[in-house]
Specification:
Blueprint (H helix, E strand, L loop, with lengths): L1 H8 L2 H7 L6 E3 L6 E6 L4 E6 L5 E2 L1 E3 H23 L1
Antiparallel strand pairs: 1-5, 2-3, 3-4
This protein binds zinc ion.
Length: 84
């Protein structure tokens, strides 16, 4: 929460320099890098995933790992149900 607030306040380049090389924020869809775009008509910031080029939310990389593990376990549970 505090970290997200800091990103909003800081200028993007400053934030990029300040962020550690390992870990950090990733796109919620692919867990990849993202670009920050600015829609000047609407005065609106949004993020675009570099992997799928879609607009995305950004999440902590560990959150992405967690989500991926959860969906993997769900898939696994589905498969096991089918096998029975
Ligand atoms: Zn993506």
């Amino acid at each position: 929460m505090v970290k997200n607030l800091k990103i909003k306040v800081m200028n993007y380049d400053d934030w990029k320099l300040a962020s550690p090389p390992e870990g950090g924020l990733v796109s919620s869809c692919c867990g990849e890098d993202y670009n920050e775009e600015y829609e000047s008509d609407l005065e609106f910031d949004y993020f675009v995933c570099v992997s799928c080029q879609d607009e995305c939310d950004i999440i902590e990389d560990y959150e992405y790992e967690q989500n991926r593990r959860e969906s993997y376990l769900e898939d696994l549970a589905d498969e096991q149900r089918l096998e029975r």
